[in-house]
Every structure is written in structure tokens, then in C-alpha cells.
Amino acid sequence: MSVNKDVLNKGLRFLLGSLPTLFIGVFILNSSFKNQKHPLYVYVLILAILICAYAVYLMFKGINTIMKSMFGK
Question: Which residue range forms the structural domain that includes residue 46?
Fold first, then answer.
């Protein structure tokens, strides 16, 4: 079983890119829940949910790419 190192590095970059976006999304989500009376609450909440969803997508893409590098097509 050989590992394609280029594809493995690409998958690890996806996973490393998901970490900051996940923490930023959760931080913004927490801030939006603390300021529910602010007029921009809904927009900040939507932004936080989109950032968290993008982080989950990056994690899925990274894990999927790592699996492709290990097991091939």
C-alpha cells in the first residue's frame, strides 16, 4: 500500500485550513448570541453559520482527500 504524498499533503492543507475557520466561526457565533438585541444580530448569526459550514466542508474535503491518497481509486 503506497501513499501518494502530493495528494496527502493537499488533504492535510485542507484540514489545516479548516481549523482557523472553525474557531473563527464559533467565536463569531458566540459573539452574536451575546448581542441578540443588536440590529445586526441576524446578519452576524448567518455569517457565523456560513463560516462554520465552510469549515465542516473543508474538513470533509480534507479527510476525503487523505483517504484517496491512501487507498487510491
Answer: 5-67
Q: Is 1 exposed, middle or buried (0-12, 13-18, 19+ CB in 10 A)?
A: exposed
* pTM score, whole prediction: 0.87
Is residue 72 situated within a structural domain?
Answer: no
Say which amino acid occupies 26.
Answer: V
Q: Mind listing the pLDDT tens digit for each residue in 37-54? A: 999 999 999 999 999 999
Report the number of distinct structural domains present in the chain.
1
Ranges of the chain whose pLDDT falls below 70: 1, 73
Q: For Cα atoms 49, 54, 55, give the angle at the middle one, nearest 5 degrees.
A: 100
